[in-house]
Amino acid sequence: MPITPFHFGPGAAIHAVAPRHVSFLAFCAANVLIDIEPLYYMLTGQYPLHRFFHTYIGASIIMLATALIFFAALKLASRFSLPDLLQWQSLSARAIWLGAGIGSCSHIVFDSVMHADITPLFPFSETNVLYQLVSLRKLHLFCVYSAILGLAILGIRQWIKARHAG
């Protein structure tokens, strides 16, 4: 299933550990952009589903595209009165780049473990040494536990902040 929320779990944990340095929004955006590729191939009945953008070279292009989209949106926000949901307008360039980069690369790692049709090192190699490195169950549990950990850390941070403010 493309655009799975499982990918977001590790992003939540990484963002929770370094909230000013890694954008969770850019992390998620990169993951969604990568999964437009298999969604398209699913809808058109073409196989394999995971192609160019599910390689590290393709993921690097997605990272660049994600960052450029964020920078363009920030430029528009400075000219027009765009809503600042989740404080995206205060993201630093570093947080955007790191979020997009970690999101893109982690997506390839996780999908490489899950899907036989991925060749992450293409055009240098057509092998996928990560395929079934761990079971699908363990991979999903890792993603879910990462999300829980990230939410717990963020919740504790908010609780501490509220206690010191009041």
UniProtKB/TrEMBL annotation:
It comes from the Bacteria. Keywords: Membrane, Transmembrane, Transmembrane helix. The chain crosses the membrane at residues 53-74, 139-160. This is DUF4184 family protein.
